[in-house]
Specification:
Blueprint: H1 2-17, H2 20-29, H3 36-48, E1 51-55, H4 62-72, E2 77-81, H5 88-92, E3 93-98, E4 103-108, E5 115-119, H6 126-138, E6 140-143, E7 146-149, E8 155-160, H7 173-176, E9 179-184, H8 190-202, H9 215-227, H10 232-246, E10 260-262, H11 266-282, H12 290-301, E11 306-307, H13 309-313, H14 318-328
Parallel strand pairs: 1-8, 1-9, 2-5, 5-8
Antiparallel strand pairs: 3-4, 6-7, 10-11
Length: 332
């Protein structure tokens, strides 16, 4: 009974404190037509303190969506266009010699912001990726002998093009795993694209939007997301899903064993739990249900499951493997 009273109070608190999400969605809708799924996934990352990797063809508003969401939050925003000639100093900053004082001064790079748009992240070489990796994981940057903490909220929102491989550097598994979500973006439907054409031609699309949320409100919402109730049965459900990617034969999925090279790490379990809580928050609930887990599962796991050559030969994707696992693992 006590747990029920606590959940009821938490529900009321979340209902009040999550109202700003509607303001964010309304603000982004003035610029972005359709792509509600992508906006929702960006909000998931924002609430769960998780970096987001968007993968899709050019022209699907990936960059615009990230920039628009950043504008709707009254926070510092930096866009970094990744290119093969980029250097780590171009991102984190460097030491500059000052002849007047005969000393070196620190010039901070664009990484010192709340929202980092890493555009076409797979076009940068390994040294740049490693510099970004420290910032993503440790929330700090090292310049010379000094380390600098990054301000909260700190979020890397990256894009990559899946079809053009010339002049690109595939992201190492260690870095891809640092992204909480890998979201694949598809085409808009015909009605949405008609609306895009009409708004663009008529000039109705807003070019600039006003900030509707403060960083303090985001930080407060993140603390509330942590408090969302997750029953032990839901935790076990998450564990079963992740362990089924490692040991599919134990869950009646022996046919997947030749298709999976490696399964999700403990970071997959942690992020699946955090994203499920954030999804419950977006739906203004103080507790997690199995549908929350199922909804975010694909975006959490698709970049954490390695498939074998046999799976590639049979055109079996990570998404298909995840779908089979979800349909087989018992729902609490």
């Amino acid at each position: 009974m006590q747990a029920g009273i606590d959940i009821e109070a938490l529900n009321q608190q979340i209902h009040l404190d999550s109202a700003f999400l509607e303001d964010l969605k309304l603000a982004t809708s003035k610029v972005i037509v359709g792509q509600e799924y992508m906006i929702e996934r960006l909000l998931l990352g924002l609430l769960a303190k998780g970096h987001v990797l968007l993968e899709g063809l050019p022209g699907l508003a990936k960059t615009l969506s990230i920039k628009t969401l950043s504008s709707a939050v009254d926070a510092k925003f930096s866009r970094i266009q990744f290119t093969p000639d980029l250097l780590p100093a171009d991102i984190i900053g460097t030491m500059i010699y000052n002849p007047g004082t005969n000393d070196f001064n620190v010039r901070k790079g664009p990484i010192f912001a709340n929202f980092i748009l890493a555009d076409e992240i797979n076009r940068a070489p390994a040294k740049v990726q490693s510099a970004l990796l420290e910032a993503m994981q440790e929330k700090q940057v090292t310049i010379g002998k000094q380390s600098y903490q990054l301000e909260e909220p700190f979020l890397v929102l990256a894009t990559q093009n899946p079809i053009e491989q010339e002049g690109t550097y595939p992201l190492p598994e260690a870095q891809v795993d640092r992204f909480m979500l890998k979201v694949k973006i598809g085409y808009p439907n015909k009605d949405e694209e008609r609306s895009i054409i009409q708004k663009t031609i008529s000039g109705e699309t807003a070019q600039v939007i006003n900030a509707v949320v403060t960083p303090e409100k985001i930080v407060k919402a993140r603390e509330l997301v942590k408090k969302i109730y997750m029953d032990d049965k839901i935790t076990n459900y998450i564990l079963d899903i992740v362990f089924a990617t490692r040991e599919p034969e134990k869950y009646g999925l022996s046919e997947l064993r030749p298709l999976i090279n490696y399964g999700g790490s403990p970071r997959a379990s942690i992020n699946l739990a955090l994203a499920s809580k954030a999804y419950a928050f977006i739906n203004r609930r103080g507790y997690v249900i199995p549908d929350d887990v199922r909804n975010v599962c694909e975006d959490i796991l698709r970049h954490r499951i390695g498939i074998t050559y046999e799976a590639e030969a049979e055109n079996i994707s990570q998404e298909e493997i995840i779908s089979r696992i979800i349909s087989k693992v018992e729902v609490p």
